[in-house]
Design brief:
alpha+beta, 26% helix, Chorismate synthase, AroC fold, 17 strands, 5-stranded antiparallel beta sheet
């Protein structure tokens, strides 16, 4: 099956299913001699793991990463870095009723028709459980980028119709993790949490927007014409579960400007190449598809049935998606850095 690897010189391949024995990956192309901070990798995983707050899924996974290869005496060897995490809290019986039922808004039906078989337990490989592997790869990429003074910081900027009223450069992004919703604007964060709690209590879900800020890049990263910096970044973001859109800062708003005004805007990329300024983009996430409200679903035989989902699910994916967005952005930038140095 194609589509399990991402990157050119720095390439991440992931494996595993939501309710399988384990998930993991291989990160190839990481330069040798990088000091590896295992505590930092675990910290990044803890930001993504389930069960971390009252507004996330109650599934409990420790997500303790085990490094299998590629590191010796605390440094990268320049060889493939293998890693894995055991699945510890599967409630597979919750999904027995879904063996022949396609959940609304999920990949169940198309996956079944494409491959002729699917793991119905939590979506199998199509589950966002896989994104934990991306966070590990992204943590290595962040460590590599930090050597050059490049940073990646994302935050929740909107939940449903509740939006942060300030620009990214008017916020203290270092306080993002102080809130369980990962919004660095306390007043807005409180409203977001209340909105998510209302959706959870009514058996529903909500979506929103994550903004990501990339700082410290020099001029020159990006490989035109097909691998422009923002094109690869869009690819990375839209590969994340539940994403619905990608735009550079003010992307669609630029359609309402004259050329004279738009030319004066700083967006961090020009002609697909980094300009040395901050690269800021926004990623739209849909409401989580699995909800407790009754919905009409369809069986593999085409019969309409009423579905009331069991299992444990996030009422809003955004708080746990922040480290995933950062990880994919870091993988893109680290790869672009290595490509520039060829």
């Amino acid at each position: 099956m194609a589509g399990n690897s991402f990157g050119t010189l720095l390439r991440l391949t992931t494996f595993g299913e939501s309710h399988g024995f384990a998930i993991g990956g291989v990160l190839d192309g990481m330069p040798s001699g990088l000091k590896v901070e295992l505590d930092f990798i675990q910290f990044e995983l803890d930001r993504r793991k389930p069960g971390q707050s009252a507004i996330t899924t109650p599934r409990k996974e420790s997500d303790r990463v085990e490094i299998l290869s590629g590191i010796f005496e605390g440094q990268t060897l320049g060889t493939p870095i293998g890693f894995m995490m055991y699945n510890e809290d599967q409630h597979s019986d919750d999904y027995d009723a879904l063996r022949d039922v396609y959940r609304p808004g999920h990949a169940d039906e198309v996956w079944d028709k494409k491959f002729g078989i699917r793991d119905h337990r939590g979506g199998g490989r199509s589950s966002a459980r896989e994104t934990a592997c991306r966070v590990v790869g992204g943590a290595f990429a962040k460590m590599l980028l930090a050597k050059s003074g490049v940073s990646v910081q994302a935050y929740v900027s909107a939940v449903k119709d509740i939006e942060v009223p300030l620009r990214y450069d008017e916020l203290n992004l270092l306080t993002t993790d102080d809130s369980i919703v990962r919004c660095p604007h306390p007043e807005t964060a409180a409203q977001m949490i209340a909105c998510i709690e209302d959706a959870r209590d009514s058996g529903d879900s909500v979506g929103g927007v994550i903004t990501c800020v990339c700082k410290g890049m020099p001029v020159g990263w990006g490989e035109p014409v097909f691998d422009k910096l923002h094109a690869v970044m869009a690819h990375a973001m839209l590969s994340i579960n539940a994403t619905q859109g990608f735009e550079l800062l003010g992307g669609f708003a630029a359609t309402r400007l004259n050329g004279s005004a738009n030319n004066a805007r700083a967006v961090g990329v020009s002609g697909g190449i980094s300009t040395g300024e901050d690269l800021v983009f926004r990623v739209a996430f849909k409401p989580v598809s699995t909800i407790r409200k009754k919905q009409v679903a369809r069986t593999s035989g085409g019969e309409a049935v009423e579905l009331e989902a069991a299992g444990r699910h996030d009422p809003c994916v955004l708080p746990r998606a922040v480290p995933i967005v950062e990880a994919m952005a870091a993988l893109v930038l680290a790869d672009m850095q290595l490509l520039q140095k060829r």
